[in-house]
Amino acid sequence: MSAQPRTARGTRTKEAIVRAAETVFAELGYNDASIVRITDAAGVGQGTFYLYFASKLEVFNEVVEDLNRRVRHAMTSAAVAADTRAASERAGFRAFFEFTAQHPALYRIIRQAEFVSPGAMRMHYTRIVAGYIHGLTEARGRGEVGDIDPAVAAWSLMGIGEMIGMRWVLWGDDAASPGADDDPYASGTREIPDEVFEQMMRFIEGGLGTRDNSAGTHTEGALS
């Protein structure tokens, strides 16, 4: 576990190291990253690094936890004002895609974590999916979604968000024209186009069998 700063200046220094590590790990990968590269990017000496972290692996784990905390905060903050599960899904996914467009390191680092630090990867998915399961369970009790298994639905939603985000945000090339639908590198964008988002939400709402209580409508789907 990393050391906790004792001063406001120490907190800023540690945050600078974590942000620099996020960039270095995302750009170079864990194996090619080094503490020297991280400290150079953060503008601090190696001695300062070791005040807070014992190793490269320790700062990697801190980066995963930091990204996890920030993306969950973004999604929760966006969804908290929603008064139905359908609205919550829309707001949460919008926030997720906006976060990943600004922090593509999230995808790259979590994918590395499977091999570098499986415990960190497990923490990341567990925290997100646990919140999903809780929210879907409550929504099912209120009749806002169909008779679904919240765990299966939660993992399905995670998969949809990750693959749509990678196709249109992470792998997209905003300097190129959109290419073939089956080419992962041919989206021609760094953000989710509105028509893609709406198609995705139509699929999700149909699968969940979401009910908008304010409108009194119910979207039937395979899982409802």
Structural notes for this entry:
The protein is an all-alpha fold. It has 2 domains: 1-54, Arc Repressor Mutant, subunit A, CATH 1.10.10; 57-218, Tetracycline Repressor, domain 2. It is built from 9 helices and 2 strands, in the order αααααααααββ. It has helices at residues 8-28, 35-42, 46-52, 56-79, 85-102, 105-116, 118-141, 150-170, 194-208, and strands at residues 211-212, 217-218. It has a two-stranded antiparallel sheet with strand order 1-2. The model is unreliable at 213-224 (pLDDT under 50).
Give me a quick take on this structure.
The protein is mostly helical. Helices cover 67% and strands 2% of the residues.
Largest sheet: 2 strands, antiparallel
Number of structural domains? 2
CATH-assigned fold name of the largest domain? Tetracycline Repressor, domain 2
The percentage helix is: 55-70%
- Which residues sit in consecutive blocks of at least 5 with pLDDT less than 50? 213-224
Structural class: mainly alpha
Q: What is the CATH architecture descriptor of the largest domain?
A: Orthogonal Bundle
Beta strand count: 2
